[in-house]
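Contributing new complexes? Match this layout with fe (ii) ion.
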Amino acid sequence: MAPTMAVSNYDISDFVLHKGHGVKGLSETGIRTLPNQYIQPIEERLCMTKVVPQDSIPIIDISNCMEDPKVAEAICNAAERWGFFQIVNHGIPIEVLEDAKEATRRFFGLPAKEKNKYSKDNSPSNNVRYGTSFSPQAEKALEWKDYLSLFYVSDDEASALWPAACRDGLLEYMRKSEAVVKQLLKVLMEKLNVTEIDKSKEDLLMGSRRININYYPICPNPELTVGVGRHSDVSTLTILLQDDIGGLYVRDLEDNNSWIHVPPVKGSIVINVGDALQIMSNGRYKSVEHRVVANGSKNRISVPIFVNPTPNDIIGPLPQVLATGEKPLYKEILYSDYVKYFFRKAHDGKATVDYAKI
Ligand SMILES: COc1cc(/C=C/C(=O)SCCNC(=O)CCNC(=O)[C@H](O)C(C)(C)COP(=O)(O)OP(=O)(O)OC[C@H]2O[C@@H](n3cnc4c(N)ncnc43)[C@H](O)[C@@H]2OP(=O)(O)O)ccc1O
Ligand SMILES: O=C(O)CCC(=O)C(=O)O
Ligand SMILES: [Fe+2]
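Output block (do not edit by hand):
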């Protein structure tokens, strides 16, 4: 049954959450009024008077990032000042980016019954999960977003478990982004006096990867809800591909009350520092709050790759950072405990990183 304005809240939850239609299915019924479950408290909606249109996160041409110290400097400065930047001339072919977006549209274009085979209750593996909002059990108000989250273990596991509709395009995007991730981490680590990235350091920085695909359908009352609420990522670095719609906003660290739009730039990739890197750098690189608004006239997709420590790593400020006598700001913590803490609550700004503070 397709929900109408007359159906109860229970029916909407059943349709969206349990039957797997997601907010995409709800949007496609032509629903004209936002259901109550999606109405966010006023303080969680983005008020456009808080957006500074003349400001922008840096756009960095990284074609010479290993040779030109000015490029390395720009990357490190952006990670300290903004926690976010966009990269161009990164070497990932444009067709690979287009194929990843096409793969995303193909998956969300499947019938609800097919997508629901990957829901938390039905998925053959914890590593493959289709869902909606962020953490519906814990949230007072739901978010206007559907997602598929894929934890990468191996190509063989992906072949066996990831949905065929999107698997190949997403795997290729992951493969092609690996060299970029390594370059960025090398540059960021050198500034922290970490000059050698051996196998155990590489695992600590990028030993696990998760690729999410996000779908934000047209929303009947976009000003009353959010696509994604205020949060910082729990990753080391996030590599985000967005389409040409826009809607991602980043908190301005120098004016805590202001938000800055991340405009779509053709062929570019958005990079942001995650909590794990903020903790390892003892607060030098910033994992900055960001959020996505809902859109009243266009569907939007995005494809973040979360580059993480391995779940069984202990993360804490790196010894090279503390060698100068700097006081540690964060305790040592098992990374999977950190991530579980993040997933078990609603989006709540920077509260996850506060959990690791001394
Ligand atoms: C979805 O919308 C989002 C997502 C994000 C994500 C931002 C990131 O930075 S993701 C990068 C996270 N890092 C990793 O995945 C690498 C480390 N991984 C691990 O430590 C583990 O794989 C694990 C994530 C802790 C899961 O371990 P497992 O033993 O399988 O534990 P579970 O009991 O299954 O899960 C624990 C808890 O988390 C919930 N959960 C698990 N996976 C997801 C997921 N992909 N999406 C949402 N929630 C997930 C799970 O339901 C469990 O909670 P319960 O309450 O059900 O017990 C940013 C913004 C977004 O809007
Ligand atoms: O869709 C976007 O632009 C950002 C999504 C996001 O912040 C996330 O998935 O962690
Ligand atoms: Fe995020």
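Reviewers usually confirm one structural detail per submission. For this one: The pocket of fe (ii) ion (ligand 3) is lined by residues 231, 233, 290 (CB under 6 Å).
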